[in-house]
Amino acid sequence: MGRFLIILFLFFPLFGTSQVEKPYIREGNSYYKDSKFEDAEVVYQKGVNENPSSYDAAFNLSNAYYKQGKFNEAKNTLSQLAKSQTDAKKTAECYYNIGNADLGLAEEALNKNDLENAKKSVENAISDYKTSLMSNPYDKKAKYNYLFAKQLKDKLTQMQQNPPQDNQNQQQQQQNNDNQNSQDNQNKDSDADNDGIPDSVEKGSDPNNPRDSDGDGIPDYRDPDSDNDGIPDSVEAGQNPKNPKDTDGDGIPDYLDTDSDNDGVPDSEQVKMIPQEMAERILEAINKADEKVQQKVKEDKNARGAVKHEKQW
After folding, report:
1. Domain ranges of the chain
2. Is 165 left (phi over 0), alpha (psi -120 to 50) or beta?
3. Is the dihedral angle over the CA atoms 42, 44, 47, 49 positive or is it negative?
4. CA distance linking residue 156 with residue 224, whole number of Å
């Protein structure tokens, strides 16, 4: 879930310390590179014990926690580390990774269909990335993660606004049924890739020959990343996907623009942040949770239609 950074000792020398933890950091890095994260955790912890003020040892320890799915431990370690930092870049790194850990907690909650705690964790992540950007405003990776987290919050809010209801009067039930049927008809095949951008927009001027911007054989209306820059269309579309965002005002919406801010650097080179597989897992978890909510709504409506009296819970 992002560039949860591993500090290599050779590239990040320790400043003003006795360096007694140096052998532990080097050994921990070796384990980490081999994906032996439990062993790395043990060794990094020894480094922290030897020198509690070591940024490198503590930061790498948090990485080892993160890789094992110990998101709370990673957050706690990074939070304590951030408090002691006077270097803006290091502070930004700490809060960036705290945000990534919060998204990990959000994914866990989503997998349990716990929308409330998932949303809280996403809100925490938004705050974390914002704090990171206050220390390093030029970090495009943090900006991406910030926007990604806001997109997740919007999706979760929409889901929470339409929870299944156990007790409704007959008139409200009928209204809900009518609304559901209307919505089903309206949304039928209207957004095939679930990115918020209507298929009619993504298909282009000739619906019989749908546009395929990146030439990968998948038409844009079925492609979650139409310009193949590594940023999901759902993020690049902005707050109003029906009118997709055009950051540089060149007439090409960001989700089709390979250099959306017109800075001369392709978006694909700028966004090495949340790995796409992690972003896809989170979105998939949201979609599954949403499906469960909608299925429960339909089951409740069907049950109320068959039984003439209300259940007393």
Report:
1. 1-71
2. beta
3. negative
4. 19
Q: What is the pLDDT of residues 79-119, one digit of tens each?
A: 999 999 999 999 999 999 999 999 999 999 999 989 999 99
Residue 274 CA to residue 102 CA, distance in Å, equals 13
The total of other beta-carbon atoms located within 10 Å of residue 289's CB is: 21
SS3 for the chain is CCCCCCCCCCCCCCCCCCCCCHHHHHHHHHHHHCCCHHHHHHHHHHHHHHCCCCHHHHHHHHHHHHHCCCHHHHHHHHHHHHHCCCCHHHHHHHHHHHHHHHHHHHHHHHHCCCHHHHHHHHHHHHHHHHHHHHHCCCCHHHHHHHHHHHHHHHHHHHHHCCCCCCCCCHHHHHHHHHHHHHHHHHHCCCCCCCCCCCHHHHCCCCCCCCCCCCCCCCCHHHCCCCCCCCCCHHHHCCCCCCCCCCCCCCCCCHHHCCCCCCCCCCHHHHCCCCCHHHHHHHHHHHHHHHHHHHHHHHHHHHHHHHCCCCCCC
Query: Which value, to the nearest 10 degrees, does the dihedral of the CA atoms of residues 49, 55, 59, 60 take?
Result: -70
Burial class of residue 278 in the structure, from the number of CB atoms within 10 Å of its CB (0-12 exposed, 13-18 middle, 19+ buried): middle
State what percent of residues in the chain have pLDDT above 70: 71
Among 60-74, 86-100, 161-175, 221-235, where is mean pLDDT lowest?
Answer: 161-175
Q: Rounded to an integer, what distance in angstroms lies between the CA atom of residue 43 and that of residue 31?
A: 9
Q: Contact, 26 vs 12, CB < 8 A?
A: no
CA-nearest of 180, 212, 215 to 193 is 212
Residues ≥6 apart with Cβ < 8 Å to 305? 173
* CATH 1.25.40 is right for the domain spanning 1-71: yes
